[in-house]
């Protein structure tokens, strides 16, 4: 099996630059000290993407704008344009899907591609990766890195090597030379708190982690320690999971203007997301039988967890309550920059629902459903901001 990990270089900055050059509306932000994010006048917000010249000033992603401006007073700041980013992302994914349907998109600017079934069409994986990289630049004007290996973990690690516009391999026989000398914080899924723990027990490189007794790691980091040991040794059996042709879920996510640091921060965001998803479920005439919550930490590590909804529901209150439970189970205490909820296992709203015999408060649920429906009608007529139902 051969897997590619394809990652857009500084996606937000690149896509904004391509539009600037195409429409003569601004400079190529990639060539000057520049960032995407925040507001230059108010000096609020965080750095979402940075140019290589900005990086030379010590500016880093997720850094507060005010801090970045202290390092580089002449820093050019462009506001985010998520509609534009979605457009470029869709065009990139459509091109890759024209090569093979075996594509797993994991974020707006990165995906895995299972090269195995189309390998016969190319002289080598490296030749295919270079062709993909060059075609993306010729068609769309931005660059990507392509990592190649036999599993997803190693392909992703390879794509994070020298940037931009590069192809890198990290086959199992290259792990000791290419990956083990790297600092342990560069290992996928090694977050800030995990790295701090590893440093305390004398582990500084990925190679040192790989050669450590996994029992010791489990003692200090529980199950996450075993996972990090496996990744340090290049072990990963996750398949590339291509998306179904028709979406089978409804969800929403948001990037926080500032990193959240407590459950109260999360509660406000999750309530808003639950209200939004509830409205979309009702509009689609669907009930959700499963809910998942996603957290992206300030380190850009992403985790998610899910639970069934019994009975299936489109209630904002039920979605919010379930999302709070999932967040509480999932959150590791580190600052978070994105929260998302997604409903799956959808069924028609007018389909018969199997009631739980031990849930006797059906009248209360019916009243809450009527309240949700009434709020939806008001918002559809007068706008989303006319009335808000607080978290309960």
From TrEMBL:
Cited CDD domains: PolY_Pol_IV_kappa
Major localisation: cytoplasm
Top-level lineage group: Bacteria
UniProt cross-references to InterPro entries, sorted A to Z: DNA/RNA_pol_sf, DNA_pol_Y-fam_lit_finger_sf, DNA_pol_Y-fam_little_finger, DNA_polymerase-Y, DNApol_IV, Rev_trsase/Diguanyl_cyclase, UmuC
Coiled coil: none
Annotated Pfam families: IMS (PF00817), IMS_C (PF11799)
Subcellular location(s) per record: Cytoplasm
Role description: Poorly processive, error-prone DNA polymerase involved in untargeted mutagenesis. Copies undamaged DNA at stalled replication forks, which arise in vivo from mismatched or misaligned primer ends. These misaligned primers can be extended by PolIV. Exhibits no 3'-5' exonuclease (proofreading) activity. May be involved in translesional synthesis, in conjunction with the beta clamp from PolIII.
PANTHER family tied to this protein: DNA POLYMERASE KAPPA, DNA REPAIR POLYMERASE UMUC / TRANSFERASE FAMILY MEMBER
Membership in a protein family: Belongs to the DNA polymerase type-Y family.
UniProt-recorded name of the protein: DNA polymerase IV
Species this chain originates from: Candidatus Limivivens merdigallinarum
């Amino acid at each position: 099996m051969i897997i590619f990990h394809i990652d857009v270089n500084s996606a937000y900055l690149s896509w904004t630059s391509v539009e600037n050059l195409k429409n003569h509306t601004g400079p190529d932000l990639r060539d000057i000290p520049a960032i995407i994010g925040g507001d230059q006048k108010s000096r609020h917000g965080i750095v979402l993407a940075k140019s290589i010249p900005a990086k030379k000033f010590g500016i880093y992603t997720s850094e507060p704008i005010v801090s970045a401006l202290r390092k580089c007073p002449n820093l050019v700041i462009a506001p985010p344009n998520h509609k534009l980013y979605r457009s470029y992302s869709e065009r990139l994914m459509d091109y890759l899907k024209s090569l093979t349907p075996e594509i797993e998109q994991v974020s707006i600017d990165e995906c895995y591609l299972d090269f195995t079934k189309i390998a016969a069409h190319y002289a080598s994986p490296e030749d295919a990766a270079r062709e993909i990289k060059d075609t993306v630049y010729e068609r769309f004007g931005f660059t990507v890195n392509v990592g190649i290996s036999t599993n997803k973990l190693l392909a992703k690690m390879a794509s994070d090597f020298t940037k931009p516009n590069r192809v890198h391999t990290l086959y199992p026989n290259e792990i000791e030379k290419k990956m083990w000398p790297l600092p342990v914080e560069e290992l996928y899924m090694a977050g800030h708190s995990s790295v701090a723990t590893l440093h305390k027990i004398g582990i500084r490189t990925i190679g040192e982690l790989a050669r450590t007794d996994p029992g010791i790691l489990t003692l200090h980091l529980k199950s996450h320690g075993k996972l990090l040991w496996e990744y340090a040794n290049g072990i990963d059996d996750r398949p590339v999971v291509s998306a179904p042709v028709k979406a089978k879920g409804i969800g929403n996510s948001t990037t926080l203007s500032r990193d959240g640091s407590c459950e109260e921060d999360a509660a406000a965001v999750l309530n808003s997301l639950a209200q939004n998803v509830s409205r979309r479920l009702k509009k689609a005439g669907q009930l959700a039988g499963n809910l998942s919550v996603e957290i992206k930490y300030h380190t850009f590590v992403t985790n998610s967890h899910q639970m069934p909804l019994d009975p299936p529901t489109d209630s904002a209150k039920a979605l919010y309550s379930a999302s709070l439970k999932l967040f509480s189970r999932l959150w590791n205490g580190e600052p978070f920059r994105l929260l998302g909820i997604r409903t799956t296992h959808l069924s028609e709203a007018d389909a018969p629902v199997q009631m739980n015999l031990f849930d006797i408060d059906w009248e209360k649920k019916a009243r809450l459903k009527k309240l949700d429906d009434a709020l939806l009608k008001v918002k559809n007529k007068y706008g989303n901001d006319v009335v808000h139902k607080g978290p309960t």
